[in-house]
Amino acid sequence: MTKFLTALTAAAVSVACLSTAFAEPGPGKGHEGMDRQPPMPAFEDLDTNGDGMLSTDELTAARAERVQTLDADGDGKLSADELAQAEIDRATKMAERHAQMMVERMDADGDGLLSAAELATPPARPSDRMLDRLDANDDGSISQDEFDAARDGMRDRHPPQHDGKRGDHPGGKPPQERQAD
């Protein structure tokens, strides 16, 4: 049993270390990719023999494959320049996605380009975007069922933290609410 727990711990630590080496953009916090943590590779991708367990050999092979992918000069090692290039490539992809989203969101005439007038047009009000998102049947209003479904979906995506309290304030309340107590 001790041997199994040791192997499981080693695998967990290796997977955690691997997640920082796999520099692909993914879900996280921040503005358009800022402060995002790279996603962990899919378990199925790491479990190359398909036995439902990650071995040290599989994790080592995944690390070696990642090094080989980033190793531009083929010397088997990653230089600061190679790591920087990987970050530049990742940032470029994020910037391209961000620019494409801006064009899709702001291109009123559909020509695939943003004119000065389109850039000067203020974005839709948050209340308009919320209505569009929550109005599942497109009737122009939000029913109780649509509201409840959105609330439940939000709870599923953002579970409470800190002993069931939301927020990072002591007691789960922001300062202005604590003063009212």
Tell me the count of domains. 2
Radius of gyration: 23 Å
* Helix/strand class: mainly alpha
Can you give the mean pLDDT? 75
Number of strands: 0
The main pleated sheet reads as: none
Termini gap: 51 Å
Topology as a string of helices (H) and strands (E): HHHHHHHH
Biased composition (Basic and acidic residues): 126-136, 148-181
Organism: Falsirhodobacter algicola
Keywords: Metal-binding, Repeat, Signal
Pfam families: EF-hand_5, EF-hand_7
Task: Write a brief structural summary.
Residues 120-181 are annotated as: Disordered. With 181 residues, this protein is mainly α. It has helices at residues 2-21, 43-46, 56-70, 80-106, 116-120, 126-134, 144-157, 175-180.
Fold and architecture overview:
Mean pLDDT is 75; it is low at 5-37. This protein is mainly α and 181 residues long. It has 8 helices and no strands. Helix content is 55%, strand content 0%. The chain has 2 domains: 2-120, no CATH class; 125-159, no CATH class. Helix 1 packs parallel to helix 3. It is flat, with a radius of gyration of 23 Å. The longest helix has 27 residues, at 80-106.
Furnish the topology, listing elements before pairings.
Blueprint: H1 2-21, H2 43-46, H3 56-70, H4 80-106, H5 116-120, H6 126-134, H7 144-157, H8 175-180
